[in-house]
User: Fold this.
Amino acid sequence: MTTDAIDSAQTPRHEEGTNYINAEYGLLSWLFTIDHKRIAILYMISVTALFFVGGIFALLLRLELMTPQGDLFTSDTYNKLFTLHGVVMIFFFLIPAVPSVLGNFILPLQLGARDLAFPKINLLSWYLYVIGALMGVVVMLLGGVDTGWTFYTPFSTTYSNTWVVPTVLAGFIAGFSSILTGLNFIVTIHKMRAPGLTWFRLPLMVWALYGTSLIQLLATPVLGIALLLIAVERLWQVGIFNPALGGDPILFQHLFWFYSHPAVYIMILPAMGVISEVIACFSRRKIFGYKFVAFSSLAIAFLGFLIWAHHLFVAGISVYSAMIFSFLTMFVAVPSAIKTFNWTSTLYKGSVSYEAPMLYALGFIGMFLIGGLTGLFLATLGIDIHVHDTYFVVAHFHYVMVGSVIMAYFAGIHYWWPKMTGRMYPEWWARLAALLVFVGFNLTFFPQFLLGYLGMPRRYHAYVPEFQVLNVMSTAGATILGAGYLLPLIYFVWALKYAPRASANPWGASGLEWHTPSPPTTHNFEDTPTVTWEAYDEKAWLKEAEKNV
Amino acid sequence: MSKKKTYEAEDFSHHVTSMGTYFAIFAALMVLTALTVWVAFQDFGSLNVPIAFAIATVKATVVVLFFMHVIHSPKMTAAILVGSIVFLGILFLLTFSDYLSRFWPMA
Assistant:
């Protein structure tokens, strides 16, 4: 049995050559589309643009840090650069990247549905995202903001003389985009699964997106309120966070991190879903311990809400509260470890092949392991006091949010690229890019663990000379990482026109998205599929395909 | 009646609330609003805030149950409502684990 048989089994009856890309033409057909696949492409273009904007800020930061003295930027400009880097990368790239691009495209296909439950709300989500992002760009053009992406009070409400209010409003608006996406996904997963597609037959990507959506829906409103309260205090001097007005600055940190810690799971959970798909496909095995991996997504989503104040250990919260949050934080390591062990067990005795998505996925496991374990260091009160606000923290969260999430995003983009565009990509170049990203990333951020442990504080544009060697290593790594990120942009654009056409199932993967042509038609499936096989049961899937030949 | 028909009947029928109920709820909300205003001008000491919260909670509950039709909605809607309240409870509970155990030198 080959993928050819699967292709012929799934040969659609739609008009030859018609798909969601060429079904309609013109800019307006894209700007007013309600097709989830086209909206995913709109998101992909937008988040890619913002990713490179955020990336340029990162490279400027690393350039400044090559030398101990501040020689390129003033301290004020440096403050604005790291603020904008954080705001752009978190609110406008990492949060929407996996759910809004890959989730939007893949979720209805994996469910055997024609679209999301609310297609027009899906388009509204994208417009809200764009409005928020454009406000962010306007802020940059006007002169930026210098509060850090965390907007800590009372600096943000009282002392900063930069564009705080437009920036928090940009985040507020983008937040609604996230809420609507989460709502759309939850309703779709509950209501639009194909016949026979029971909860335990769902691909793990769907479970991951479900957990993500719960967080988006439950946590984002709290961020929205916290950001609005900044505007209220700043504009009308209402005493909420500023002690001089009778407020409490730590209240802001509680409200902010009630969202922003779970937000890390908005980024990492769908990324974990991608990894489950890729590992299963390129190991030719069912995911080991399917139900454990599925429920661990929900466990992470829930536990993620109980641990936010580990960001506040040295901010002035009570010792009792710090102990509770330290204790609770340890728990989130359990479901994360379950996933990691199960992915590794899936590889065992699998028929592993090393296409680019798999290289990224393997990289993810390593990076996530380091990012996750150093998280436990930081959850330990005594160690956190030592390394708080140092480069150790910077390295830790970059291992999770960049080393893990972006690796998974790239794994997903490569894995589903044939489905999205109907074209393959140049495998050799893709493997090279994966290697560059892996090497570049580790060279950038591993030295930062050492810098942090040695005591280099974050958010300063100058430092003592003995830290220079590690900083130069880090900047050299950032350059390689930049090249690794740029390379896919070039070959993906090239692939759109010149790469070989992709079959319906070029990887021989299971999952309903591979039951439809590449690229799919506007309505995804000619007939609603009926699922009779378990998730990742390749043999049953192939048997079904053979039966239909 | 077949199982399928029962399912459809549940899915597509809406409970129609009588006008009398709506007016009764409206009247209750007006009374509670007047009570809120009256309470605001009284001094109950440390009970000022809890009393205001209690009245607001009653008002929100009747709005959610009757004006938003949750009382006649499927169990899933109720589960989502309760789930949201649980997460709000987590926010309050764990935030107060800090505030109620903090050292306040001014106090």
User: Anything to note?
Assistant: Residues 74-107 of chain B form one domain.
